[in-house]
Amino acid sequence: MSVIALIVAAGRGERAGQSGPKQYVSLAGETVLARTIRAIAACKAIDSIQCVIHADDHELYAAAIKSLSPAIKKRLRKPINGGATRQQSVMAGLSGLTDAECKTILIHDAARPFVSPALINRVIDAIPLAGAAIPALPVSDTVKLLADDGTIISTPDRTTLRAAQTPQGFYFPLILGAHQAMVDRETTDDASLVEALGGRVVPVAGERSNIKLTTPEDFVMAEWALTESLTTMGYDVHAFGEGDHVTLAGIQIPHTRGILAHSDGDVILHALCDAIFGAIGAGDIGQHFPPSDPQWKDAPSSTFVAYAMKLLREHGGTLVNCDVTLLAEEPRIGPHREAMIENLSRLTGLSKQRIGLKATTTEKLGAVGRGEGLVAQVITTLRIKREA
Ligand code: CTP
Ligand code: MG
Questions:
Q1: Which pLDDT tens digit goes with each residue over 39-81?
Q2: Hey, whose CA ends up nearest to atom 26 of ligand 1?
Q3: Ligand nearest to the CA of 9
Q4: How far apart are CA 376 and CA 94, in angstroms?
Q5: Is the pLDDT of residue 388 over 80?
Q6: Do residue 37 and residue 86 come from a single domain?
Q7: What confidence category does residue 1 fall into, taking pLDDT thresholds of 50, 70 and 90?
Q8: Which residues lie with the beta carbon below 6 Å from any ligand 1 atom?
Q9: Looking at ligand 1, which atom is closest to the CA of residue 83?
């Protein structure tokens, strides 16, 4: 007789303002649903996890659970299709289970990825008291009761109000019976069905961090909480050689000399790659694209940037700003500046306002001053997933 967690994930997230259903939105590199499954699985008392998903979302679901460990995947049951309302989705999930396999059930919103094992255990421990237990929080705002026309009727005593969270825990037959008896009554949580039938529901301490991601602001705040700001730099030098152009920020600029390099010798893009690698402990560009490897001969450095950006995304990172300084006596980049910025914007996904591109001569001093080559320095600011 086991404890099963039912995660309802069949909603459309109309209020969240994201480009798809909110449970499949990526937060610091991992989908909300994968985070929620991991958070639920962190509670050892839960034997298996049943997700309820939208019939259109099977591919999104398969992609979302890819990142989960084999141990967690083993506890995941095959997803069940949900319904048009949360209540119908819960009902669909409950209908797929039997008394024999499920004694206790925890019903959880996929949109609450920050639930802690301590909260889940408090709920599980309180279920035997009445067969139903929910996490609840005192309300910190003063709450107003409104009439249909929007006018305020009254101000209930805040000390007697609680905001209900999930997971809500029940003896399985109790909540299945309540859902079956109350199909015609619309509610936004499961405990209210037990209450309506006269059953007792025990509140335990919820957690402020266990928010339900609902609005666009919730996503902004969650991303902010999961990531931190880093500043990193990259630096590259190439000597001039034979040729009639140099490549800078992916743009070919006519010149009396070329660049001595295995690839296209783009000092700006190489320095950009190193700045990105510096934010994720990924070494330097030479480790990823060794000059000794013939496949990178004359390679366009945009390939290297695309790879660095992909690694960055896989680490839950995003670029915020990219500031480039080129040291060069010649060629002048003025006529090419706009094209270079546009290309950097295309390669990094940054807006043009978030890209700095400066060039300076070195007043004829040193190797650059003698016209022997080019130097680029790139400083980037990034948001990266916080270390656990
Ligand atoms: N849910 C569900 N099936 C539905 C509606 C909602 O499984 N037909 C799930 C959601 O996926 C979510 C949880 O119930 O995990 C809580 O619902 P809510 O926050 O309202 O999510 P959505 O219905 O997706 O969002 P919205 O109401 O803004 O459209
Ligand atoms: Mg909803």
A1: 999 999 999 999 999 999 999 999 999 999 999 999 999 999 9
A2: 13
A3: 1
A4: 61
A5: no
A6: yes
A7: low
A8: 8-16, 22-23, 52, 82-86, 89, 109-111, 212, 214
A9: 8
We report the CATH number of the domain holding residue 299 as 3.30.1330.50
Positive or negative, the Cα torsion across 185, 140, 169, 194?
A: negative
Considering the domain architecture, whether residues 288 and 190 belong to the same structural domain is answered as: no
Report the alpha-carbon distance of residue 288 to residue 275 in Å, rounded.
14
Q: Mutation test of ligand 1: which of 7, 8, 165, 188 has the most ligand atoms closer than 8 Å to its C-beta?
A: 8
* 287, two tokens: 């480790």
Indicate whether 33 and 68 sit together in one domain: yes
What's the CA-to-centroid distance between 189 and ligand 1, angstroms? Answer: 11
Neighbours of 63 (CB within 10 A): 14
> Domain range holding 279?
227-385
Strand-pairing partners, residue 102, are: 2
Instruction: State the distance from the centre of ligand 2 to the C-alpha of 15, rounded, in angstroms.
Output: 8
Cα separation, 83 vs 11, in Å, equals 9
pTM, to two decimals: 0.85
Atom number of ligand 1 nearest to Cα 7:
15
Average pLDDT of the segment spanning 102-124: 98
